[in-house]
Amino acid sequence: MKTAKAANLAALFLIELGAVGAAAYWGITLDVPTPLAWLLGLAAPAVLVVLWGLFGSPKAPYRTHGARRVGFEALWFGAGVAALLAAGAVGWAIALALLCAVSKSLAVRWGQ
């Protein structure tokens, strides 16, 4: 069981990276002039990283708990899924949503 819990924490970290990467992917795939696409490709994940640092990180100054935490994570990970959908990567969006739901459910069940 110890190994499964550790694997789930690793999966959660990879899912977090996936959400940030999805935001970058959305930005650079937009049908806009290249400099703007690159700007959005850098700004969108930066916004997610800052929000995670303020509200989601274990050392966050405004760490959320309880229902607020659930809402924050639903919106934060949902932003990654929405970015993939907006970029036309429907399969990846579904995969990210399913992985997030399963892994977060296990984390709650195991008190992680």
TrEMBL record:
Looking at the UniProt entry, the stretches that span the membrane are 6-28, 35-55, 75-102
Q: Pfam families recorded for this chain?
A: DUF2568
- In terms of superkingdom, the source organism counts as Bacteria
State the UniProt keywords alphabetically. Answer: Membrane, Transmembrane, Transmembrane helix
Alphabetical list of InterPro entries matching this protein: DUF2568 (IPR021214)
Name the record gives this protein: YrdB family protein
